[in-house]
Amino acid sequence: MQPKSVIIILLSLISLTFIALLAFHQGVYKKHVVNLNDPALIEIVTDASQGGKTRAEMRIDKQGLHLTCQIKAQYQWPFCEIQIKFSARDANGRFLLDQGIDLSNYTQLYMDLAFQGEQADRVRLYIRNFNPLYSNLEKDENSFKLNEVEFSANEFNGGMLLPIKDFNVPSWWLHPRKLPIKQHGVELTNVPLISFASGSEVEEGEITLSIKQMYFRYNLISQQNILFFIIALWLSAAFITLFMMLKNYRLRLYASNKVQKKQKQILKTLKLEKSEMEQLAHRDPLTGLHNRAGISKYLIEYEDKAQKKGAAFSLIFIDIDFFKTINDQYGHNVGDDILVAFSLCIERNIREQDKLARWGGEEFILLSINTDITEAQYLAEKLRNLIAKQSFIKKIKVTASLGVAQMEIGETTDSFFERADNALYQAKSNGRNQVCVAIKP
Ligand SMILES: Nc1nc2c(ncn2[C@@H]2O[C@H](COP(=O)(O)OP(=O)(O)OP(=O)(O)O)[C@@H](O)[C@H]2O)c(=O)[nH]1
């Protein structure tokens, strides 16, 4: 992995963790804001509907919704109430009170309230819920479940959260309905309206309730999930980093193996080339025999054996007779072919330790270890005979002259070669197609 990518990944991880920690501390909320600005959604209800004399009016301004009530003790339980509708409306704009909104996920209610009046600031808040199990709007237009809470309004001055679990369903609502126990709890699955009402012990006089702001909210991501996210994030990062490192390592290993393999191949090719070069340098290209450089190692080896161990070491100079005539008569190519056939003829008739080399032109030398002068003379004669009997290409017959010498103890190579060469010269001078033995030094 590149250092630049590592820095980018680390910065992203740190940023994500920072955001997650902020969310952990502040929370990530979904809100449902209650619309307090639309008079069409708001309705006032007082005990006048029950024969009382309480009057109320509302006002909407930038500060919010204000309900002012003139409470009159005419009715046994005087009250005034402001309803805020949530439900859908039909084509004529009438509220469909059986089609409210689902607030069951919301856990808190934020309210910013103010209360004015010469009496206790008690207020009741009802969240009404429609459920066909207990609601029948045709029989009773108030057959909603009442989720109720009563509190001091000024406690919420400046804004405060109220947990939804603080609501309860009053027993006077539950009692006549005889609902099964599991339906006794607070229910916000289908809320068509909420309402603020004067407190249960309201007295005669003027009271004003101002609702400045109001919303329901719940935490979209729990703190537990955020912690899980942070741990999972760093664990995944560690896992991915380990995986990438391993992959990188394997790639590098693969690359180095490949380089090593290639190097081995190059080395092998070089070795092959070297041996080919050596071959070229030590072999005569026409006959494939050792050349002067190629035979030198055997010469050193055999000299050593002769001088230090007393082994018999003989040398035979072989020269084709009148080779110029063949070239002149048949052409250089035929001459070449005869040189090849001539060298093959000798090679096939000597022992492994006898080393044949092309000394130059139509001249050859044969190094023969463990061979004294008598044996060498015999060998030379045998070869001369074979050559003379053999027909080469185009039935051409050639003869050869041979000079033989055995290395003496303490003799130099130059002297040894000179003696053999002189013997060859002697053979040529004597009429060719013969073997001459060198004179002892
Ligand atoms: N075809 C061919 N001819 C070669 C090669 N090397 C040397 N020759 C020829 O061999 C001939 C040697 O001639 P000379 O040195 O006069 O010897 P010669 O004709 O064999 O006579 P003597 O050795 O005296 O019997 C020359 O014509 C060279 O050109 C070769 O590789 N191929």
UniProtKB/TrEMBL annotation:
<dbReference type="InterPro" id="IPR050469">
    <property type="entry name" value="Diguanylate_Cyclase"/>
</dbReference>
<dbReference type="InterPro" id="IPR029787">
    <property type="entry name" value="Nucleotide_cyclase"/>
</dbReference>
<feature type="transmembrane region" description="Helical">
    <location>
        <begin position="6"/>
        <end position="24"/>
    </location>
</feature>
<dbReference type="Pfam" id="PF00990">
    <property type="entry name" value="GGDEF"/>
</dbReference>
<dbReference type="InterPro" id="IPR043128">
    <property type="entry name" value="Rev_trsase/Diguanyl_cyclase"/>
</dbReference>
<dbReference type="InterPro" id="IPR000160">
    <property type="entry name" value="GGDEF_dom"/>
</dbReference>
<keyword id="KW-1133">Transmembrane helix</keyword>
<feature type="transmembrane region" description="Helical">
    <location>
        <begin position="226"/>
        <end position="246"/>
    </location>
</feature>
<feature type="domain" description="GGDEF">
    <location>
        <begin position="311"/>
        <end position="440"/>
    </location>
</feature>
<dbReference type="GO" id="GO:1902201">
    <property type="term" value="P:negative regulation of bacterial-type flagellum-dependent cell motility"/>
</dbReference>
<protein>
    <recommendedName>
        <fullName>diguanylate cyclase</fullName>
        <ecNumber>2.7.7.65</ecNumber>
    </recommendedName>
</protein>
<dbReference type="GO" id="GO:0043709">
    <property type="term" value="P:cell adhesion involved in single-species biofilm formation"/>
</dbReference>
<keyword id="KW-0472">Membrane</keyword>
<dbReference type="GO" id="GO:0005886">
    <property type="term" value="C:plasma membrane"/>
</dbReference>
<keyword id="KW-0812">Transmembrane</keyword>
<dbReference type="GO" id="GO:0052621">
    <property type="term" value="F:diguanylate cyclase activity"/>
</dbReference>
